[in-house]
Amino acid sequence: MKKKLISLGLILGILVSFSGCVSKDSEEEKGEKLRVGVTISPLKDFAEAIGGDKVDVFSIIPDGSDAHSFDPKPKDLNNLISSDIFVYNGLGMEEWIDSVLGTVEGKDVKVVEASQGIDAISVSEEELDDHDHEEDDHDNEEDDHDHNHGGKDPHTWLSLTDAIIEAENIKNALVEVDPDNKDYYEANFEELKNDFNTLYDEYANKFKNLTNKDFVTGHAAFGYLCRDFGLTQKSIADVFGEGELTPKNLEALINYCKENGVKTVFSESTASEKEAETLAKEVGAQVVKIYSLETKEDNMSYLDGMKYNLETIYNELSK
Which of 1, 5, 10, 229 has its C-alpha lying 20 to 30 A from 172's C-alpha? Predict the structure, then answer.
């Protein structure tokens, strides 16, 4: 009888143990997160805000790296192949994207071009020429690389209204891949959208009453922000960060600044301030830092960075 009780106890113990393992495995499977790969920092913020605890988001571009010239490594491609969703900005922001898209093609990865549906700002050859590239001596291969931008300004996330479109594209992909959590993603998107609209409305009213709307910067990355708030952008480098402060270009900018009473030259913190300081010195202005936000800096989130940019720009133009 004692042996039978011991045997029964062992069997029950095994069954309980087995049941515990099944329960644990089931919970782990149920709690598995979607893997979402992105390129630039704003897209990571959007995906994390909308996906919440349902997603594991990673960027293939390290913080502080130039998204234009980034060179994906084999480990980056392997990470993307094993992900559920891959999000990139588009409009020529990631000049290397074709090789990545070719790698994930045919794999079970949902690809999202975040800028899809945005009214992109066209960049004419005339605008590029205004920045005196002086590239006539470059060979054809270099020229093809330098101008393979599609003629569009890629800095769409610097518009709060366009950031909503990018966030919605990400939300739609999450819903498509994980329809069981549709309501969760929709609710998070609406909260993010409300945050963007609230910030936009606050500064739309402020900028509307400004008399000085002349925005001068080292890099023409802020066209979408200027479009949102009725500002006029002039810059040292063009929209692709190309061009030099030649004597001709410097003279034109000096005249523009003097004619329009420009007191501030804005400079991205990731870019060299040397040329911005040269221009500022010539016109008696100061150089003030703002963020392009394509990479994470000073531990700022996208929304924190936009708040800083808008408040800084507004305060400087109000002087």
Answer: 229
Per-residue H/E/C for the chain: CHHHHHHHHHHHHHHHHHHHHHHHHHHHHHCCCEEEEECCHHHHHHHHHHHHHHEEEEECCCCCCCCCCCCCCHHHHHHHHCCCEEEECCCCCCCCHHHHHHHHCCCCCEEEECCCCCCCCECCHHHHHCCCCCCCCCCHHHHHHHCCCCCECCCHHHCHHHHHHHHHHHHHHHHHHCHHHHHHHHHHHHHHHHHHHHHHHHHHHHHHCCCCCEEEEEECCCHHHHHHHCCEEEEEECCCCCCCCCHHHHHHHHHHHHHCCCCEEEEECCCCCHHHHHHHHHHCCEEEEECCCCCCCCCCCHHHHHHHHHHHHHHHHCC
CATH of domain 202-317: 3.40.50.1980
- Summarised one tens digit per residue, pLDDT across range 97-140 is 999 999 999 999 999 999 999 999 998 754 555 555 444 444 44
Name the residue ranges covered by the structural domains of the chain.
34-114+158-197, 202-317
Output the CATH code of domain 34-114+158-197: 3.40.50.1980
